[in-house]
Amino acid sequence: MQNIKGTYDYFGREQAIRQKVRTTLQELFELYGFEPMETTLLNELELLTSKYAGGDEILREMYKLADQGGRRLGLRYDLTIPFAKVIALNPGIEFPYRRYEIGKVFRDGPVKKGRLREFLQCDADVVGIAGPQAEAELMQLVAEVFRRLEIPVMLKWNNRRFLGEILGAVGVPQQEQLSVMLTLDKLAKIGSAGVLAELTDKQLTAQTVTLISELLELANPGFAELVERHKLEGQPGTLEVLALQQLIDAVGLADVCVFDPFLSRGLSFYTGTVYEIFDATGSYTSSLGGGGRYDAIIGKLVGRDDIEYPTVGISFGMESIMALLDERPAEPADRSGVLVVPVGGYMPQALIAAASLRSAGIRTTVDSGLRRLKKTLAAASAKGIRYVIMVGESEAAVQKLRLKDMELGSEELVTAAEAVQLISMG
């Protein structure tokens, strides 16, 4: 009788915080014009393992299974591929289309703080906008989400097309560029020595490895420095970076969004802008979310390379956000609820009173009435409940309720309507 490693049950304070984060995300997704969507947990294995889906590492971590009909299936490892499937299966969807989804995904990978095997992802994606507008709006969304959660963040971003232009300039063959990008993405984890060690196993010349080594030795190389160094003026990726940076500056996000020329993210399907969110204080080192542009997936899934499906998305990592918030002191107890206590077996009257409060939108709990009243009141106080309504023989005789204000220590006989009015004002 135990949970599978990397899976958890949530209740009490932790679930209350999770719900607060989820509600914040949902409110902002809808504020930004995203529509809700639910995709399937179970998918055809062929879809999840297609060359247009996740990289080799993700596929190794996928949960695979078969149904009674012998069909090969898998549990979704992210919300992106199932979303791309929905777009591919529904050609009547009008673009641009904005969707959000909050749901469980599954990965059979190593377990650590903020990284589980069953976890919640919170995604927002836009299909049908090719320019940098969609990326800039998602960056605004990120800034607002973490402002509301009171978490200072830094959003690191790059452009894979631009990084490919740099790699091409130093001699990396086209067929090796994605592999080299994924190695460069590990720079913060394994350092330049680890990156160079991995590069020696690839099909690269000694001169190319030397040029990449010199690139890594640059102290925080800026965009302009890299463009000039590798003669990249006018290249498509260079122009995309320039256009997005101008939007970032114009909307006042330059302090939050920081260009990182080595960022590429671990998934193979990204085609342009990529970004990752980090705690700005550095106290929590794992990513709090990330995403990017993946223009090729949907068209390839439907076998139509000639149709454009420009798509960009962002994913917020609930478990990483919770790992960060869990270090904060507990918030004050919610004192908005009301406890109704039947005294001496007057449960029908207690339930009728509770119904009146609930119909007015007041959160109400009915006590069992089996404990001594003194203990019930002490427990209510410990939970932070401000108002307790008691109904017993004397109250029922005059068809009233006894309303006790635990904060002021006062009580009075009132009708149900008067109780609603006093609690609503209080």
Question: What would you say this structure looks like, in words?
Answer:
The chain is α+β, with helices and mostly antiparallel strands. Helix content is 40%, strand content 20%. The chain has 17 helices and 16 strands. The longest helix has 20 residues, at 12-31. It is elongated, with a radius of gyration of 28 Å. The mean pLDDT is 92.
Brief overview, please?
Helices cover 40% and strands 20% of the residues. The protein is of the alpha+beta class and 426 residues long.
Layout of strands and helices, then pairs:
Layout: H1 12-31, E1 35-36, E2 42-44, H2 45-48, H3 56-60, E3 64-66, E4 72-75, H4 80-89, E5 97-106, E6 118-127, H5 133-148, E7 153-159, H6 160-169, H7 177-184, H8 187-199, H9 206-217, H10 223-229, H11 236-250, E8 257-259, E9 273-279, E10 289-293, H12 297-301, E11 311-317, H13 318-325, E12 338-342, H14 347-359, E13 364-366, H15 373-382, E14 387-391, H16 393-397, E15 401-405, E16 410-414, H17 416-425
Parallel strand pairs: 1-5, 7-8, 12-13, 12-14
Antiparallel strand pairs: 2-4, 3-4, 5-6, 6-11, 7-9, 9-10, 10-11, 14-15, 15-16
Helix pairs in contact: 1-5, 1-13, 6-7, 6-11
Shape: elongated
Structural class from helices and strands? alpha+beta
Give the averaged pLDDT, no decimals: 92
Over all CA atoms, what is the radius of gyration? Answer: 28 Å
Note poorly predicted spans. Answer: none
What percent strand? 15-25%
Number of helices: 17
Spatial separation of the terminal alpha carbons: 46 Å
Biggest β-sheet: strands ordered side by side in the sheet: 1-5-6-11-10-9-7-8
Helical residue percent? 40-55%
